[in-house]
Design a protein that fits this description.
about 140 residues, mainly alpha, 6 helices, rod-shaped
Length: about 140
């Protein structure tokens, strides 16, 4: 990757030359950011400092667009693995991250266990009476 640096001539020739972010440089920033390169790494490649990228609004926007593209690609790949490759592990991970699902069982009103009286055919009073009778009847020794 070549360096396209445009130096603006100053009359007094003091200080560093001003770094110009050309459309080609901005595309390069966006492309490098789409590979999750840091601003410091991109600055070394294009020939400026990280703070120069941070100060320039167009450069900052190009970097943010590149990072957003990288995240989109990663999410698409993960989704494809979960759906096309039928990966239950990836599907569980996506559920935890994006849907707030957990491995921990939380009993609340929606998923509380049913009381025994809802699945046994005998009325509640009969079940309670049997429990009381079993506790009060003395057991005989054989």
């Amino acid at each position: 990757m070549g360096k396209d640096i445009l130096v603006i001539d100053r009359k007094d020739n003091r200080g560093r030359p001003i770094f110009e972010f050309t459309p080609k440089i901005l595309d390069q920033i966006k492309d490098l950011a789409s590979y999750m390169c840091s601003k410091a790494e991109i600055g070394k490649i294009i020939g400026c400092s990280e703070s120069t990228i941070n100060r320039n609004q167009l450069a900052q926007e190009a970097w943010e667009q590149g990072v957003a593209n990288a995240k989109k690609t990663i999410r698409k790949t993960q989704f494809d693995i979960a759906t096309k490759l039928n990966s239950s592990i990836m599907a569980m991970w996506l559920g935890k991250v994006y849907l707030g699902q957990t491995d921990k069982i939380q009993n609340d009103d929606e998923n509380a266990p049913l009381p025994i009286y809802d699945i046994v055919e005998e009325p509640k009073e009969v079940i309670e009476l049997k429990e009381v009778q079993n506790d009060t009847i003395p057991k005989q020794e054989i």
